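Running this now, will post back.
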Amino acid sequence: MNQILSKSQPIEITNEKIQPEKPTVFSNLANISTAFTDSILLFLGLRPSENDDRTTPPTSSIMMRYGLNPQEMAYVQFKSSRLKGFNGVLTFFQQPNGSTVVYGQWSGLKDLDPMNYEFVIYKNGVMQRDMTINIRRDIEVEGSSAFLLTTFGSLPLSGIDKIIGGHLHILNCGKVIAKSEICKI
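Update: finished.
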């Protein structure tokens, strides 16, 4: 069958099947890893914003839908003025047993070594908590993005020592690349 796009150049349409490339063991593992990460983020209620690649924190109704009944919830959304494209969100929720789950994602990483990053909370100009060890232990870096799901035994979102109202400082090799206020949900 011939279909003419212009008077001088006919194009022939064939019914050839294009065979996909055979997957390798490594491409299968990468697909499984990506699917697993995507399903965890969807389960936790992290959704991409329509305007950019940052994420939005979940509401308490999303948490309750999955049987999670947090005592308190907070989030911090950050964007770097020093590193173009570096932005993300961390969400905190305190469980009834007092432990605090922290999860989130950020993108625009230039340095892909998690050991070069520090995560410190300051409140009233004084260092309140250093979260670096837990975050380094549980961070997953994929491409120029990072994903986190970790639990702190003592990171209060209520009471006299609460982190809400403090500022999360993210440092790379000792230099502050982002800092934002931790807000209550």
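Helices lie at 25-43, 60-65, 132-138. More later if anyone needs it.
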